[in-house]
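Follow-up to my post from last week.
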Amino acid sequence: MIYLDNSATTYPKPDIVYKTAVAAMKKYGANPSRSAHSFALASGGAVYGVRERLSAFFNLNKPENVVFTLNTTHALNLAIHSAVKENSVVITSTMEHNSVLRPLYKLSDEGICSLRFFTPDMNNVYSTINAFKEACEGCDVAVITACSNVNGYRMPIYEIGKICREKGITLIVDGAQGAGYFNIDMQKCGIDMLCVPGHKGLYSLMGCGALLVNESYEDKTEPLITGGSGNMSKSLQMPPYLPERLEAGTLPCLPIITLGAGIDFINLVGLSEINYRTYTCAQRCRELLKNIKGVHVYPSFGSIVLFNVQNIQSDEAASYLNDCGIALRSGLHCAPTAHEMLGTPPDGALRASFGTFNSPRDADRLARCIQKIKKV
Amino acid sequence: MKLFIGTGSATYANKASRTLSAVNIKNRIVKRHDDNLGCGYGVEISQGDADKITDILKNAGVKITRVIKEEV
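User reply:
Got it. Predicted complex:
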């Protein structure tokens, strides 16, 4: 099977992640942050080590401000509920995932905040920056994806961060598709809160994500759920400081430890190499598909290729490709406004998302299968 | 003299432990009940200057909840 669904979750994982997972099940079976016997301290130390690595990787430089979550959606909900207050004006883009849109619409529907959208210009980064600059006037919070999950478009977060700093806007970045694919520097980009998954570009097992909170925002975060934290147990409120303030209940220790191994892998291979590998495959795929009559390739970037085959619904095409031994994702990819903006049909499109373990031959195979679909 | 430095959370205990280890101060993470706060963590150091050690930890950004000096 050729796996081209890396935007949903990366697969396979690097060998070091599998080895770490097996070792961690045996070595780190005790609950971190609850007891003080040697097993618990070993788990706690391993978890803290991952906080350190995440903090360094995104240039947060404060391991204790790395809050572990179940996934990016959980991290985004925490960030949004912390930042959006009564009468807040929130700006976001038309390229966002439902993990951003749904929490924002819920707050808007409840009359807590009002929403404002800007549309990026895929062909001109300056137009995108200007569109944001004009639309963000009077806004309190910006929630922006670093990279679209639909077509791989990279938002100019450095420039957006600069504008947010100038205007005093809290910046929340959805790093679901960017983390592990290109450098996200929280200080340079002026990001207040960065939400990342473990299991995508950072190669952990599914079950953990993280919210990275810049020092500028550490006292303003609010828990979504409350409960045991293993410390300050006499208090009937959550502890006053991070990360325990936002980490009620037992942590997903095993996925977290594999996340550390994933970061080690990225540091070893290098972000530029990963970017080169995934881009090379996707670019070859784009070129091959564009030359097939009846295949429409939408503007897509980086590791992602978004396309449709004329007169065949995307779900049907994906099912056929599955029978050909190719795994990719069809539909709206939980991002309806992005699809609307790109002009895909109501049933969406096919998304091939390449990972670091794909080869250009996988793009060739996909193109051959698409040729066959057309003949059926 | 044995020194206990309370950090409140296990996360800060880990940070404290690694900060001290980096400057070759032997320590270990322990859990110790705090009458005011309940369950708490910290680091135990068998010997050293309490003021100097707390300064190192404060400079590293460790939140300190209490310092207990015990004669051995």
